[in-house]
């Protein structure tokens, strides 16, 4: 399975389109839908993203009972209800819906953050602050060594 790795910040153009980073498009190129799936993060001002094949696998797990229903039913119900499938245009861009942009306080630029099998879309300044907080926590946990 190809993974979403690294961090990229891209500008949103005047028509509201943003270019999906080329390495992310490469991960998505073998999927059944040429685009991305986005939905609001449940507990943070972030947009969660993945390829449609990940949602297909999740749906299969729900049908076969291979998924912990009680712990995750509300989350998956919300995710499927709010998911937006966005097709790539000829240049590999998508138009992110305004309500998702508002949820993540994204305005002129968006930071794409690889999270392995998924990715996140952040307001660049919010990501920088969150990333630094995580880094500092890790340094503290390691006794300040770094």
From TrEMBL:
Gene Ontology biological process terms, A to Z: negative regulation of DNA-templated transcription initiation
Family annotation (InterPro entries): MraZ, MraZ_C, MraZ_dom, MraZ_N, MraZ_sf, SpoVT-AbrB_dom, SpoVT-AbrB_sf
Keywords noted in UniProt: Cytoplasm, DNA-binding, Repeat, Transcription, Transcription regulation
Alphabetical list of Gene3D superfamilies matching this protein: Transcriptional regulator MraZ domain (3.40.1550.20)
Positions of the SpoVT-AbrB domain: 7-54, 83-126
GO cellular component, one term: cytoplasm
Superkingdom of origin organism: Bacteria
Compartments it resides in: Cytoplasm, Nucleoid
Molecular-function GO term, any one: transcription cis-regulatory region binding
CDD domains: MraZ_C, MraZ_N
Pfam families registered for this protein in UniProt: MraZ (PF02381)
Record HAMAP family: MraZ
Family: Belongs to the MraZ family.
Subunit annotation: Forms oligomers.
Protein name, per record: Transcriptional regulator MraZ
